[in-house]
Amino acid sequence: MKKSAFWLLSLLLVMSVFLAACSGGGEKASTEKEPKDDGKASGEAQEGGTVTFGYTQPFKGVLSYAYYEGEDDANALQFMHEGLLKVNDELISEPNLADYELSEDKTKLTFKLKQGVKWHDGEELTAEDMEFAWYLIADPTYEGARFANVAMIKGAQEYKDGKAETIEGIKVIDDYTIEVTVTEPSVNLLENIWVYPEPKHHYGDISSKELPDSDQIRKTPIGVGPFKVKNIVPGEMIEFERFDDYWQGPAKLDGVVYKIIDGSLAQGLVQNGEIDVIEAPKDQWEAIKALDNVNPVEADAMSYSYIAFDWGHYDTKKGVVVSDNKKFQNKSLRHAMAHAIDRQAFIDGFANGLGKPLNTPFPSVSWAKIDDSEINQYEYDPEKAKKLLDEAGYVDKDGDGFREDPEGKPFTINFDAMAGAETSEARAQFILQSWQEVGLNAKLNGGSLKDFNLFYDTIEADDPSVETFMGAWGLANDPDPAGIWLSTDKWNMWRWYSEKSDELIKKGITFPEDASKDVTEHRQEVYNEWQKLVNEELPIIFFEQRVDPWAINKRVGGVKVTPFGTDEFHKWHIVE
Amino acid sequence: MGDLFSKEYKFNQRINFCLVRGMEMLQYTIRRLIGMIPIIFLISVVVFTLAKLMPGDALSGKIDPLNSDPEYIEEMREQMGLNDPIPVQYVRWMSGVVQGDFGDSFVHKRPVMELIGDRLPNTIILGISALLITYLLAFLMGRYSGRFAYSMGDYLISAFNYLALAIPSFVAALVAIYVFAINLGWVPASGSIGSGVEAGTLEYYLSKAKHTVLPAIVLGAMATAAYTQFLRNDMIESSRKDYVRTARAKGTKESAIYNKHILRNSIIPIVTLLGFDIANLFGGAIITETIFTYPGIGYLFVESVNARDYSVMMAIAMMLTILTLIGNLVADLLYGLVDPRIRLS
Fold first, then answer.
1. Distance from the CA of B91 to the CA of which of A116, A126, A340, B304 falls in 20 to 30 A?
2. How many CB atoms lie within 10 A of CB A17?
3. At what angle do helices B169-176 and A2-19 cross, to 10 degrees?
4. Residue B103 — pLDDT band, cuts 50, 70, 90?
5. Which is nearest to A354 in space by CA: A424, A267, A285?
6. pLDDT tens digits along A474-490
7. Are residues A510 and A375 in the same domain?
8. Inter-chain contact B190–A235, Cβ cutoff 8 Å?
9. With an 8 Å Cβ cutoff, are B69 and A274 in contact?
10. Do A394 and A448 fall into the same domain?
């Protein structure tokens, strides 16, 4: 299927050229005559109307934050439910449905719920609903992936293991107050702890295991958000209508339609108005951006791609990475390979400019990102790359055009990348050629790209043929690099072991010794040091940070785009 | 008296013949059904093996620090039995299948049979509409081609048929969407139902029809080649038969010869092709459904393969296998019914 996408796209392009040539010409001319619309939605805001939000993968219909898994369901949930806290523009958690208070010793967190927040069925949100959500997730039969978000609550692990009847650390004080005790103080507790309440009165006695398949979640889900579910057509469409008792006042729109479309049709459907708001497929962005009825918005995303060097393997018994691969231990080699690649040209050529080179694992939207002036930028410089290689002893001794390693043995580099996008092959060739141009004999591992599953299977199994590979990570709003970067992390895919790095990562989530010091400032200092380390050591080549393109029809106003998607749904409106 | 006797005798003989024939068919059907069991078993092994040979599983897609962690993935693999030896997994799966339980979908978090049951109506509506379009077009074109064989019109029809056969369905689907949905705006581009309609109302059924018509035409009109050429060739062959010559000699009108005598005889064998369409009907159109975002079995199948949702994927594959086998049996039985000369053995 994916392979045919290339043909779909090329066909669509050819067709759009033809069709634009015969029908679109007149229209364009007429809009040029009256360029009064400056693109911004500045017209009069209207009450009512319906907006269609598009997505290109079918949704599963698990409409509960505790159980959903993919972006497909999250897109629907965002209209209908909210958490006690929300992430602000600085990517820091702030009060939403509840205020919070942290005790002196940082182990007791008290939420004070706003009064009068209503579920869609008219019941009031209470502290029990939050308690209920934690119990659902810590339940021994719970099959979702969120346990990590309640594991810090005292007694949650015991409850999950069946050793305790209740969770010790949860205490409901009154209808609007709930207190949690955590096992140990943590700087990013607010970012990590689960804050989405679940409607206890609505779910009744259904067990945590049965809930994801229950009608309460699939057919009549409720939340406290600005829109309530009116109609669900499985896998295809969800219709929402305004919830008049929304705690921030009723939304401006009458309703929202969440509609699934085929990605290859995005441009056409945005053009003819069937879809109002959509994260546009990157390969169609050039065309969609140019549409007359579209406000294009480009938002920095919390994700980055990288080219990793293989450092060794994961010792499953000890649960730690072992950097025993000698091949890429030479730092000059790694630096040279980074300097050899023109990342900006890559972004312009393959992603319609939707991306920016980055040099640390923190995208620029993260508050913890170090100032660019303090780190090496690894700008494109093939001459410098060649010089570095020469100095490190990687020179061409047998005259075949490729460098040998310092011992004079042939030096080849296997490269792995994922298949899937229509430009995947060309992207991989771009990287290979960049390295070949500075005299490194790089080739595709096994002669072809790997599909997503095979790619990660091969890498996770530490297959000896893997030497360099291109991957990507999406990140949470808290900058803590644990989970990917610690030497004990299984997802430390490149198997880089560094005591210094481990130490800094762990220090990054501690409170400053000097209690008067600002926590964020303290963490910033630690993370700056850590970024300098990985930037200099370059265990992976940091490649580009992503930019998400959003197409928003000019008739829709008030749409806020964040690194994680769209927001402020109750303020969306139709522009006259 | 003698006349009556012979009539009765003939009648008895006919009943006898029907009885014998009926027994024969029943026997044959039972034998074929029994013969299917080892085939289904073998295919189940193949389907299971191929599924397991695919790299990755439903949890590979969860490599995402934002939403899960390695401990969770490992725990779920263990819980779902993905770490067990392959034969153990096969026996577990098969013992469920025999009892009609295809397990739960990991991705959708619900029983596979429910999931398929939800999608089937859409697929069947689309399948039947497409089939009707195919039959109608093929009948009209085949009749014309058969009657005016080797004429300009015949060649044009052949050209269209083979062109339609050669054009990949995603190309046809995209062109159709671009022209009729996006540029002309006659029909919606995707989905199986419009927003804001209430189930059960007239508007609802109209919306349903409006959403189905374009994919049905794309599916139906592109698949006429086999039927058209089959009908055409049969008609040409029939037109050379003795009874046709007799009819001509008696001065029967040419149109009556074709429309009554030949067509009636030539249509019969085509009816038997119906058997082969059964599996197609339920299997859905993988590519067409995906492009039209039409939530049927084909779409579900693609989705499941991409997400490595084995239980759904294997259930659909098994369902299609069984339907294909049954379809073949039905086709053979229909042959026997319409043409008593064919012996079932």
1. B304
2. 10
3. 40
4. confident
5. A285
6. 888 889 998 899 999 88
7. yes
8. no
9. no
10. yes
Residue with tokens 């580099």: A413
* Closest residue, chain B, to A564 (C-alpha): B66
B201 in reach of chain A (CB within 8 A):
no
Q: How far is A558 from chain B (nearest CA, A)?
A: 23
Query: Which H or E run contains A298?
Result: strand A294-309
Q: Which fold has domain B110-338?
A: MetI-like fold (1.10.3720)
Q: Same domain for A180 and A271? A: no
A395 touching B (Cβ < 8 Å): no
Structure confidence by residue, pLDDT tens digits, A514-561 = 878 888 899 999 999 999 999 999 999 999 999 999 999 999 999 999
Q: Model confidence over B285-315: pLDDT tens digits?
A: 888 888 888 888 999 998 898 888 888 999 9
| Contact between A19 and B178 (Cβ < 8 Å) | yes
Sequence ranges of the domains in chain B: 1-104, 110-338
Shared-domain flag, residues A527 and A386: yes
> CA–CA separation, B283 vs B28, rounded Å?
27
Distance of CA A63 to the CA centre of its chain: 20
**Does residue A422 fall inside a structural domain?**
yes
Closest residue to B190, CB basis, from A8, A218, A265: A265
CA distance A240 to A221: 11
Q: Provide, as residue numbers in chain B, all residues whose Cβ is less than 8 Å from the Cβ of A237.
A: 191, 193, 195
Encode pLDDT of B30-39 as tens digits. Answer: 988 998 899 9
Task: Decide if A2 is inside a domain.
Answer: no
Number of domain units in chain A: 3
Report A:268-307 residues touching B (Cβ under 8 A). 268-269, 271-272, 274
Query: In the beta sheet, which residues pair with residue B168?
Result: none
Contact A227, A569 (CB under 8 A): yes
Report CB contact under 8 Å: A52, B195: yes
CATH number at residue A55: 3.40.190.10
Would you call B195 and A61 a contact, using CB atoms and an 8 Å cutoff?
no
Q: What is the CATH number of the domain that holds A390?
A: 3.10.105.10
Query: Closest residue of B to A259, CA-based?
Result: B191
Domain boundary among A211, A239, A255: A211
In what helix (H) or strand (E) does residue A473 lie, and over which residues does it extend? strand A468-474
Whether the predicted pLDDT of A17 surpasses 50: no
What CATH number has the domain bearing residue A173? 3.90.76.10
Read off the pLDDT of residues A435-492 as tens digits, 9 standing for 90 and up: 999 999 999 998 889 888 889 888 988 999 999 999 999 888 889 998 899 999 888 9
A462 and A321 inside one domain: yes
Could you tell me if B55 lies within 8 Å of chain A, comparing CB atoms? yes
* Residue that has been written with the tokens 């007799």 in this structure: B246
Specify if A326 maps to a domain. yes
Residues A570 and A430 placed together within one structural domain of the fold:
no
Does residue B72 belong to the interface with chain A, where contact is any CB pair within 8 Å?
yes
Look at residue A56 and tell me if it is in a domain.
Answer: yes
